[in-house]
Amino acid sequence: MKLPLKWLKEYTDYEVTHEEFVEKMMWRGFETAAVLPELADVSGVVVGLVVNVEDHPDSDHLHVCTVGAGEGALRTIVCGAPNVVPGMFAPVALPGAKLPGGIEITPTKMRGVLSEGMLCSGKELGLTNADYPGSEVDGLLALVGEQTPGTPIAKALDMDDVIFDIELTPNRPDCNSIIGICREAAAALNKPYREKPIRQVASSGHTDAKVTVENPELCPRYAARVVTDINIEPSPAWMQKKLRSVGLRAINNIVDITNLVMVEYGHPMHAFDLACVSGGHIVVRNAIDGEKVRTLDSKERNVDSQMLLIADPTKGVGIAGVMGGENSEIKPETKEVLFEAAVFKPSNIRQTARKLRHTTDAAARFIKGVEPVTAMLALDRAIELVDELKAGRVVGETIDVCSADVRDREIDVSVEHINRILNTKISADEMAQMLLSLQIPTQVNGDLLHIHVPHYRVDIESGLEADWDIAEEIARVYGYYNIKPTLMQGDTFQGRRTPEFVLEDTVKDTLVALGAYEMYNYNFTGPAVLDALLLGEKDEKRLAVKILNPFGEDQSLMRTTLIPGMLRVAATNLNRRTEQTRFFEVGNVHIDNNPTLAEERKLVGLLFFGEGEDFYTLKGAVEELLDQLGISDVSFKRGGGEYLHPGRRALVYSGETLLGELGEAHPDTAEFFDVSSRAYVAELSFKLLFELWGKTPTYEPLPRYPVVQRDVAVTADEAVEAAALKAVIEQAPLDVIIEQVELFDVFRGGNVPEGKKSLAYSFTLRANDRTLNDEDITVAMQAVIDALAKAGAVLRA
Q1: Which of 116, 427, 699, 720 is the most exposed place for a label (fewest CB within 10 A)?
Q2: 615-628 and 499-513 helices cross at what angle (nearest 10)?
Q3: Residue-level pLDDT at 190
């Protein structure tokens, strides 16, 4: 927010140094980013009087000028300007002066004549005709009227103001205005605040203009006033100077009025050429999909039904809160104008500006929030300026379509609670006076303060937050530096990790020990990714939550699986040729399977790829993880998602509980993600891991008697699963203990019939009460062979 000092002095007394003012505002919560001169990037330039002009002896276009710069002695300056004449006043840059563009003036010999400075044009000072008449002529800037040589050029040009560039916090949109920030400045300076009341202008005729608001939720207030017999001309110098001091360009009196009011009151306004509005009827409505509006910057913009449009019965004449339409702009021949001051829903304007990729100053203010009472004040101020400048004749009464609540707000806050919040002992009367200095009327009622909240203080809430908001106001006036610091008070408790957090740490530590690196991926995905996973139409993973305001189509959904992110990580690391080939992620996915709230699930994902990695290394890692978590009865069964290779995938079970799946990425899926190597992924349910987690490990004594190692090779159909035969061996009816059953060989071909395969298992036998003899071993082996035979696996010859 730019605050010119001269503008500030219209509202309060300023009797401090700039440094003191900056510090006072800082303690009130308003940090000053910079204190800038109005005439930027110019120093060492003063008013010069050209006393004499002679032709340069060695040039046909240069002049040797004698110039007085208020120093007593005259200076010789070589100048090439065609309009230099004796007796004229012009800017002179003395040695050491600095000009825009980083130019520094030094004495220089020009064709044998020493030039002790430089006479300047308006362009060399960075000026235009809007800054000072004649600034754009071809030659020196001729200063008008009688001048005093040596006067700083900024003062001579009436550009000696100081601009405070003040940073605002998001909760104070009211201070994004001259009136709002001056109100705070007066309080900080402890000086009276002077705000001139707006003079009401009576109408002198009738108008048929009318306004219809079709969507009051997006436009809670739309106020308008009509002015006819418009006289379009440049605005007066004082108005142009004010606009220029805050960085706005003067255009004409009507447009400048709306811009000045926006700066003064912080409320954007717009003026429509009423002759271009069909029937004089403004309609505030949602746009139609496919509709186009040509805005004031001569760009045709596509709008949709989520955007609010200012229209007439036949066409759009502006995009609400963003920019007016070119078809209704103010032109030199305009004779009748409708001034608009409206309130629009901030989130809708933010969405519109983002979609159009176009944020104007007005849009930025609407996005931060404007309030309905100020809208009417802004309109009244604009009409006052129209009357003051004789820019037109006001006709008809104010048109006000308002569904907003504009009633005064009153709240009661506790003095005792505020003192507890601030650790102070401020009396109720003192608090009332502090609030009054901020233009917040307050009455004392015992231990309560009865407060009339100004309409513009939208940051002060009613209800539970009221005490805290008023405490902040009291602290700003009382001074944070006056509040004695104390240690925090309150009950303490022993910190601890939740069981879920402990499990997550255990999972991560185990996977890191297995050589995997943790990865983090975005929670967003897109429809194309779900298609690349080859999911069926009814697959649960297609139930993705849709983002209302996505960054793009590829991030328009919340992810339902970790696998796409893992495959992108594989592609990135393969392309960059890193040495990391094992990764894992513990993250959330969201399934839109509930009309009230989507289901959030935490999953554990594993990714193995590159040299030395295959289905079995991933399977082994999963087995080790489950073993470390104390999850028993683990088995792997045929199955898995369509995004996994049909011959290299499996479902992971603990007993009858499905924990997840693992396998090699399907070639088509891997190709979509540009994975140039075979990639193996696993995805497990964190919730189910938590439910089965053996938090307290159990221990068994070491065997007292020796074990006997044996193996068996059987022939079975190709369709028989190795895990099924392993289970048969483990569950064989034996009088001894069978343990450590492992598949160590699979063989096809040779003397194994076609359609068959040979599987070889090793295992150990033992007893708790004796050493096994040959008969024990023989009986046990026969029982294993008989059990396998019943399962369709015969002993291999």
Answers
A1: 699
A2: 140
A3: 94
The position carrying tokens 């050491």 is 96
Two tokens at 556? 């328009």
- CA 672 and chain centroid, separation: 31
Q: What is the largest CA-CA distance in the chain?
A: 133
- Per-residue pLDDT at 449: 96
Q: Phi/psi of residue 354, each to 5°? A: -70, -45
Q: Which two tokens stand for residue 748?
A: 């096809």
Q: Are 762 and 744 in contact (CB under 8 A)?
A: yes
d(CA 118, CA 139): 12
SS3 370: coil
Give the list of residues 6+ apart from residue 698 with CB closer than 8 angstroms, or none. none
Residue 355 CB burial class (10 angstroms; 0-12, 13-18, ≥19) = middle
How far apart are the C-alpha atoms of 82 and 140, rounded to whole Å? Answer: 8
Q: Which single residue is written with the structure tokens 């960085």?
A: 247
Sheet of 221-228: strands edge to edge? 270-273, 336-343, 221-228, 393-402
Tokens representing residue 86 in the block: 């004796």
3-class secondary-structure state, position 628: helix
List, as own/partner pairs, every contact residues 782-786 make where C-beta atoms lie below 8 angstroms and the sequence separation is at least 24, other chains included: 783/732, 783/733, 783/734, 784/712, 784/729, 784/732, 784/734, 784/738, 785/712, 786/732
Strand-pair category, 582-591 with 517-518: parallel
Dihedral sign computed on CA atoms, order 407, 408, 414, 419: positive
* Cα distance between residue 507 and residue 498, in whole Å: 14
Give CA torsion, residues 20, 23, 25, 27, to 10 deg. Answer: -140
* Residue 768 identity: N
Q: Quote the CA–CA distance of 671 and 571 in Å, as a whole number.
A: 10
Q: Which residues of the chain have pLDDT under 50?
A: none
Q: What is the C-alpha to C-alpha distance for residues 67 and 53, in angstroms, rounded to an integer?
A: 9
Provide CB contacts within 8 A for 472, sequence distance 6+: none
Long-range contacts at 131-134 (CB < 8 A, ≥ 24 apart): 131/157, 131/159, 131/244, 132/157, 132/159
Q: Quick one: which of 85, 78, 86 has its CA closest to 61?
A: 78
Cβ density class 317-342: b for 16+ within 10 Å, e for less: bbbbbbbbbbbbbbeeebebbbbbbb
Check residue 556 and report its DSSP letter: S
Q: Do the bridges between strand 210-213 and strand 43-55 make them parallel or antiparallel, or are there none, so unpaired?
A: unpaired
Q: What is the DSSP letter of 126?
A: T
Cα dihedral value 552, 554, 557, 561, nearest 10: -160
For 500, residues 6+ apart whose C-beta sits below 8 A from its C-beta are 690
Rounded to whole angstroms, the Cα distance separating 571 from 511 reads 21
Please report which helix (H) or strand (E) contains residue 582, including its range: strand 582-591
Contacts of 616 (CB under 8 A, 6+ apart): none
Helix, strand, or coil here: 72? coil
Residue 517 backbone dihedrals phi, psi, to 5 degrees:
-105, 140
Distances (CA, A) of 534 to 278, 530, 685, 705: 54, 7, 21, 55
What pLDDT shows up at residue 695? 65
The DSSP secondary-structure symbol of 546 reads B
Q: Annotate 722-733 with DSSP letters as a single string.
A: HHHHHHHHHT--
pLDDT at 489: 73
> What's the CA gap between 756 and 741, in Å, rounded?
22
Residue 692 phi, psi (nearest 5): -100, -5
Query: pLDDT, tens digit, for every residue of 494-504?
Result: 788 899 999 99
**C-alpha span between 398 and 379 (Å, rounded):** 9
End-to-end CA distance of the chain: 92
Report which DSSP code applies to 703. Answer: P
